[in-house]
């Protein structure tokens, strides 16, 4: 185990005859000893480039990478004490699965007789104990991926890098292995950075999540921080399923507090809320964000009247969408809702669920209006 620091790291690719690509832009990421960190973002946001720079398969254009305070970004990959599970697996075709997994330990002093036991342990953890004597060409893509993952995990390296480690697995197996993988990483205090574009995986596995977009780090925080205090509109709408409801609106000072008005597409007021006890000097335009899971309907809800557009019970939760003054608002409840399209229902927006963002920069202004904006 070790700490890992990406210090103001930039990566620019210069493909011959084409414009340069700035894939990673001045990213600073401080990964603590034994911490599990997810790099989360959409395709092309620079996640893999970051992993490959840490592993040593790509040069760092600017900035530094340090393990336990020592610069490593000019060292050859083999000198970095970093284990990586590749998205493309990179298994050795002439070696059996057992040898592929154990191979990394041959160079590790003291592993000796322990190798077979450790191969079995990690293979059983990843449900590939029954294919240890097969060659990579004779196993499925999901098995190849788990072999690649096993080969990285078995080393218990100071820093482990996992590129989309379970993307080929079906959801049930993925959920089981995710829990086992987390236990293994914690038990061996393995500092780990993994790439994913699956937010469920990021939330389930990581101590902290680095949300990336267009090569820039948008936010680095615990799953809870990212959900409850997104730093900007991008993070707010990227994290959460269904995504956060976003409306144009305005906050203004009123007697005893602050009024929050959401506007419909034609600019007229769709709903209004009062946040008592807050102070504001002057009105300002905002973007209002409300998480679907925190919206209330039925008894006790009184902030607006919503005309039901769709209402589906998914077996364990209801997804309901309303028209409120021309805004489409999505809500999620854990109980079925007896309502049909066209029905009018009272809708409530708890103040703690309201996020405000600057419409120009997208930066967060306030989270939960029971605190001062
Ligand atoms: N060798 C390369 N030469 C030129 N451009 C590259 C190269 N590798 C990556 N890029 C570009 O850099 C950007 C970041 O790519 P990267 O693979 O790091 O993103 P990613 O977030 O891992 O994407 P994905 O989830 O699709 O794997 C993209 O625009 C990509 O096209």
TrEMBL record:
Q: Spell out the SUPFAM superfamilies in the cross-references.
A: MOP-like, P-loop containing nucleoside triphosphate hydrolases
Location of the ABC transporter domain: 4-239
GO molecular function (one): ATP binding
Task: Extract the Pfam families matched here.
Answer: ABC_tran, TOBE_2
* Coiled coil residues, start to end: none
Keywords in alphabetical order? ATP-binding, Cell membrane, Membrane, Nucleotide-binding, Translocase, Transport
Query: Which family, according to UniProt?
Result: Belongs to the ABC transporter superfamily.
UniProt name for this protein: ABC transporter ATP-binding protein
Q: Which organism's genome codes for this protein?
A: Dongia sedimenti
